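Contributing new records

If you add data, match the layout below exactly. Sequence lines come first and carry their own label; structure lines follow with theirs. Keep one chain per record. Anything else will be rejected by the validation script.
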Amino acid sequence: MAMSLGFHIIFAVVGMAMPLLMVIAEWRWLKTGQEVYLTIAKRWAKGTAIFFAVGAVSGTVLSFQLGLLWPKFMEWAGPMIGLAFSIEGFAFFTEAIFLGIYLYGWQKVKPRVHLTAGMVVALSGILSGVVVVMANGWMNTPRGFTLVDGVPSNIDPIAALLNPSGLLQAPHMILAAFAAAGFAVAGIHAFLLLRHPNHPFHQHAFTIALAVGCVSAILQPLSGDLLAKRVAELQPLKLAVFEGQVHTQRGAPFRIGGIWNSEQEAFDYILEIPYLLSLMVHHDPKGEVQGFMDFSKKHWPPIMIVRTAFQMMVLIGFIMMVLALWALWLAFSKHDIAQCKPFLKAMVLATPLGFIATEIGWVTTEVGRQPWVVVGYLKTAEAVTPMPGLNIPLIFFAALYTFLAFIVTWLMLRHVSATPGEYEMKPRAERAKLV
């Protein structure tokens, strides 16, 4: 299940963000009449279609795994989170229908109608991701039911969907998707700009992707701060592990690094910044932050996995924010960002960072919830199917995902390497004259 989710989340992120990029490119074409934007929109649409097709396969696998591997969880939680998955299914089919219109409707519908179809694709992709994140948020802060003799009763699926964790996880995930896809696309075009510095296709594509990625990367820490405050309120054990807060303390410092010493029950090799954690969580340098020693050890998540993943996520987010601020400074100082070689090289190196941060963020929130699958109500060990011979399906799905990854990589390499020439980006009338 972890392997399936780790594979699928990349395609979910692309499905949430890439339609926005292609819609912006088409809108720029309608506004300016420059053919280069039309070329960008068409090529990004093809890339979106490739990721959508493979994401549909991995998403179907996940739907089967939920039923086969987690029947007790689905039986217990289904009435509460079923609404979220119903909306996700509706959004998926809407996205598929309008993506077809977008791909094949260039000459068949009016430009404004075509742009609207692209906007529906973008909104459907975002909605699809958001409701799944809301369902995941419910697993962290379950709401919308009362427990009667161990059985959920008086179920309110709307209250379950609008749970407090999900309401903040959703915008955090949207920004993560936009930042990851924006930086990835900008990094690809930055690499090609280093080889073809004056190519208009790469210049304009780089600018659009960079704008989306940078705005999201700057807003993401603000979203993360709000989410961390909610985690401190509703899941204090989780936040304590995130921050390496062993004992309850007033004026808690912010800690960097550290290796958990289980014998001493303390972190070794840790750097502390006095009062900063209390200030971040409570806006009060003397605020009290609960430590994970206050909780039963049987409810502790794997401390080093969770804390390391959290710190790596924060570090990558900080690096992306610094790159975004660098881009902002270049723009306001009237530098040509597409010609700044140091920045282009930095963006090439940053190409995978958003996706890495997304994967690590998923590990942070999911492993950080353990040993619970529904916090306070249902443990993972009680919800999973005891399945003999697990190595066989594990090998099968590993082979399937390896094959799909190879196919996507091969298709995208061909797609990216086929850089459009100057002729393809000229207006039709001008091309006709050349012929």
